[in-house]
Design goal:
This protein has 268 residues and is α/β, with parallel strands linked by helices. The protein contains 8 helices and 12 strands.
Length: 268
């Protein structure tokens, strides 16, 4: 069986969570004739608690769309009431470090503190039984922050840490140099959709993901086994955005956020 794993999923409170998860299923269609299991890895910000809501059946749009089966404290199996298609939803967190680097904590419901050094954050994720991923973002690996990422590659082994690619890396752009260097050292590059905090982005989950070929184990063991697999078995699938589309996505997000702050201002 092939596992299709979106390793960087945001479903913000202003999204229709049922629609976002249905989009994950549709976007991670897989190849015809091959059995697949879809996995959406939530990477929740400090102010997002969707996994807890779904686990406690407190999210109405998801309850209306899916049957929910808890598998572990950090893993749910969702079955579409309309189509019968399934997707696994894994708990996780996006952590901003003291150096303003994004570290993803995959496959664990345990939260780690924000604002600590990148090295300490990765250690905290490992101690929480999560899979730590250094997430690429436009402009965030330049200069001193690039040195921070390189230091992480020295401090941790490919069996402890992965790097994250995203749909925000425009089509036509090569892998960043740090990623190429890391891949040459055996570090895994994991793909994720990384939707932006804008309502139109709720259809993005599942649009860019990692395909893991021929995995024989159960999904519950996915996060403990992923960094032990040969890199050749992990392939980036789906689609990234054209440069003009990336620019429009970022502009739409920033404009909407600015309008939202104006509307929410106590002066209005």
């Amino acid at each position: 069986m092939d596992y299709l794993v979106d390793t960087h999923v945001h479903i913000y409170p202003f999204y229709d969570a049922g629609k976002a998860l249905a989009s994950s299923i549709e976007n991670m269609a897989g190849q015809r004739g091959r059995r697949v299991a879809r996995v959406a890895c939530l990477t929740e910000r400090f102010d997002c608690f969707l996994f807890d809501e779904i686990r406690s059946e407190a999210n109405a749009p998801v309850n209306a769309t899916f049957e929910i089966e808890p598998r572990t404290p950090s893993l749910l199996k969702l079955r579409s009431k309309a189509s019968g298609d399934t997707i696994f939803l894994a708990a996780g967190q996006q952590v901003i470090t003291a150096e303003n680097i994004e570290i993803l904590s995959l496959g664990t419901e345990k939260r780690v503190p924000e604002g600590e050094s990148a090295v300490d954050t990765v250690r905290n994720v490992i101690e929480a039984n999560g899979l730590p991923v250094v997430a690429w973002a436009p402009g965030k690996w330049f200069f001193k922050r690039g040195d921070v990422v390189r230091n992480l590659l020295r401090e941790f082994s490919p069996r402890q840490l992965a790097l994250g690619d995203t749909s925000l890396r425009p089509l036509g752009w090569l892998l960043p140099r740090i990623m190429r260097e890391a891949a040459a050292q055996g570090f895994r590059i994991l793909a994720g959709s990384d939707p932006l905090p804008h309502p139109a982005e709720e259809v993005r989950p599942g649009s860019y993901y990692t395909q893991i070929e021929g995995l024989s184990g159960e999904v519950e063991a996915l996060f403990s086994e992923m960094l032990a697999m040969p890199p050749s078995r992990l392939r980036s699938r789906g689609r990234r955005s054209w440069p003009s589309t990336v620019a429009r996505r970022i502009f739409a997000y920033k404009s909407w956020s600015k309008r939202r702050k104006t509307v929410d201002s106590p002066m209005n």
